Amino acid sequence: MSLILMLAISIAVAAGVLLVLSRDVFRLIVGLAVLGSATNLIVFAAARPGGLIPAVIEAGATQLPAAAANPLPQALVLTAIVIGFALLCFALVLGAYLVRQGGQQNVDRLAAAEPAATDPVKPPVLEQ
Amino acid sequence: MSHANHSEAGGPTYLWLAAVPLSLFLLLVWGLSRHDLPWHVDTPWVPSLGLSLAFRIDGLGALMLALITGIGTWVFVYASGYLAHEPRRGQLFTVLILFMLAMIGAVTADNLLLLFLFWELTSITSFLLVGFNHEQAEARAASRQALLVTMGGGLAMLGGLVLLGQMAGTWTLSGIVAAGPTLANDPRLPYALVLVLLGAFTKSAQFPFHFWLPNAMSAPTPVSAYLHSATMVKLGIYLMARLDPAFNDLLFWEVMLIGSGTVTAVWAAVLALRERDLKRILARSTVSALGTMTLLIGLPSAGAGLAVVAFMFAHALYKAPLFMVAGNIDHATGTRNIGQLMGLRRAMPWTAAAAVLAGLSMAGLPLSFGFVAKDIIAVAKAESEIFTLVSYATVLVNAVAIAVAGVAAVRVFWGPLELPRNQVHEVSWRMLLPPLAIVFLGMEFEFFPALADPLLLAAARSIAPGLGEVSLSAAYDLEALLSATGITALIGLLFFLAWDRMHEALHTLNRFDRYGPAALYDRLLHGLARIAAWHTRHLQHGRVSGYLQLTLAALLSMGMFGWLHTNSRLELTWDWPDHAWAWAVACLLLVAGAAAAATLRTRIAVLMASGLVGYGSAVLFLFAGAPDLALTQFAVETVLVVVAASVLPHYGTAPLQQEPLRASSGVLAAAAGIGVFLLLVHLSNLPVNGELAEWFGRTSLAEARGRNVVNVIIVDFRALDTLGEIAVVAFSLLAALPLLAGLRKGRVP
Amino acid sequence: MTPRSTLLMQSARPLYWMLLAAALWILLRGHNEPGGGFIGGLLAVAGSSLLAIILGIPAALRLQPLAPLPLAMVGVGLAVLSGLAGALHGLPFLTHLWTGIGLSTVMLFDLGVFFAVWGALTGYVYALVDAGETAP
After folding, report:
1. pLDDT per residue over B645-703, tens digit each?
2. Which domain holds residue C75?
3. Spatial CA neighbour of B246 closest among B204, B184, B304, B303
4. A83 touches chain B (CB under 8 A)
5. Which of B385, B603, B706, B732 is the most exposed place for a label (fewest CB within 10 A)?
6. Do B578 and B597 contact (CB within 8 A), yes or no?
7. For A82, which of C33, C34, C117 is closest by C-beta distance?
8. Which CATH number fits domain A3-49+68-109: 1.25.40.10, 1.10.760.10, 1.10.287.3510, 3.30.499.10?
9. Judged by CB atoms within 8 Å, which residues 542-561 of B form the interface with A?
């Protein structure tokens, strides 16, 4: 596995974590996107990619050549990309909704769904 | 009480439901007359878990079945009268039937796990029955208490049964009983027995778990008569009796049972004197009787087995009618407080008759089966050498039982009628016939013991296989009777006469209630709620950044833990891919995009920068033999950036604020980056397992007729996963629709 | 977003059809060459997004076989159906079958994936575009 790929993935993860821990809703969502991409790359890199030959059986051949890329992580990552896309869309809608409801961008103040506790035992109740 | 709150409710009385237990009872009698015990069936169910539908009916099981269906028949008749004014009686009858079936399962199950299953089912149905009047806070608390105590014990019992099963190498009760003596030297045996006994003690309300039974009296009276005197509370006794042949010789077993049984019997007898509520007095005396049964099981002699079954039988025959009597009084007068109840015999002669006959049996006086049982018990105790203390204790217990019988049968019915005559009325025949029928049955067995002899002896032999040929009637011995019971009867009479004075005197005990097991239960429950609230408040504080920090920190520490427990080599390798320049470009894009996204200050720029990260990985995929991924990533990233840009105005137009770099965020980000780097280095030093890739490459064309192996994996080899994934994507839209509607609601017209 | 370029509006429909054709082509060749339902579906999503942004959501909806949610459900249904075919022949669920002339339940499954991705993701995209248009 190439050192520069390892470094690039690590930097992307660090940046993603930094974004996710931001107090701004939009940065948080972008952080999700960056972390998602980086995670896909970790899975992909685990199979030691290096060659250029895709995991496609050539015409005339009956099986994959030994030098071809490992197809399994590719299949995993492919579906992960699509699900990640759906997740991001959902997060964008949710974020927009919360910002409109709360009238601000700070994630820590967008706590409408979890009001502060008043009773020592009973859980706090959301007022309609 | 229910009858006071509701006017006459129409609809069926469900009297016909009594045919269910009756037909089961007749089936049992028919079977007993035709076939020799034991009967068993065994059908595999989940063999891998050791779970099979193994049922076995021997003498003890048949006796329990006779009680469950026989008493059950009369309880159903009684309930149809008692609940005539209750609009929700359909529910009660449903649960009663379920309870009866669960009980039948519990006393016939031979498989350990099956026994546990039915055991817990009786706890659940008991919960529903105790909490039937769920508008009353008291009933709710009582049902929860009964459930938590008996289910907690049931769980402990499961652990014990599994241990026993592993030690004996069999999953049947009969197998464990057979293997019993060989287990004596196993160091795990005491733990297993303690766990099993926890289950039995909680179910049969043995000290220190005796407190739930009197509270369960908030159940409707038919339920108390059925569950809390005749059947369910005997389940713990049943299990102990079942296991007794295997462990009877263990000192540990003997001490546990005799000790706990004696303490329970005495303490419950004392507590009975403190009560004013007729039903609670009866419940306390039931606990006391259950303690006596536990004590008898613990006795080593063979005659003790006979004593247990005789007492169990007699107790069911007199306690169920007494509960019904209490229910009748409650129904007729609206109170169960013995301070207000006197002279009811004039208004309720039939109820009084049933009470007197049942009371006779409870006191162990002649003309009742209780007399026979008492005699057998005395013989059993004489046979075994028990501590003097225990024998004194039983005198006290019996004396209180006599006093309780006197209160329930004499005190409330004799003397002048205190309540206005027109307020009290005799109850309907459906509530009179059952107690009378049961007590007459009891008397019949006294005069013709041969009727019950075979069943009782068969049951006794299940507990004490060494029991010889005895006849219950042979136990008649006037001399022994006078010497053994005379003194007890005298003390009992004294207790009865001094009931109110002793009640006053025992008020001083109130101050110790704070330290009792019931108070401990309350404190535990309250503490549990407080802990739950406390940690909810500290973990669920509503601050997103806090959640994320905690989650990431936990994830990182788990990774760290894993790291410390692997011996990893950190060797950097300098292998270059085929198209190093393309990889360099891809990595540059990745790093630049990530860094820019984390530092730029306008939303559109941050969005574009995150797009660079995606394009970077797409380029990488393209030059690493993954054209499918490259294509997908390109498409996703493009659509995402364009679409997200269109929603940007929702997030405000002002530039993003400069956020100070918080120490916690910085540390977490750095730790995550370094952690991932170490993980990747570690990964690159591990050997590649190409087995799966090789298999997919070999079979893709041959078996799935596809050349694109990635696609073949997605749509064929792992099609079920893919189906799940597209279902998730599709259904997530369903979840998002309400949110989308909420966004649209604010639309400016 | 209101003042849209005429050139863009004129070219939106042809672009959409081109993207859709490419999507279908990628879907169909996917079993033997790079491509497949996921990628095809995403290209179709790209086409629909283009239409939604340039010509508005109603226009995009008109050129889609079904509304997003039903389309996604039909996709999941098709995938389940393709699995049932094998189950009816006594094989495990999702065992694929082939006919002599090259048609197979694998194609049905991939078509299901295509529709599910197209439907579900356009559902999100339209919502986001719609939200963008109604933004304060």
Report:
1. 888 888 887 888 887 888 889 999 999 999 999 988 888 888 888 888 888 888 888 88
2. 6-133
3. B184
4. yes
5. B385
6. no
7. C117
8. 1.10.287.3510
9. 542-546, 548-549, 552
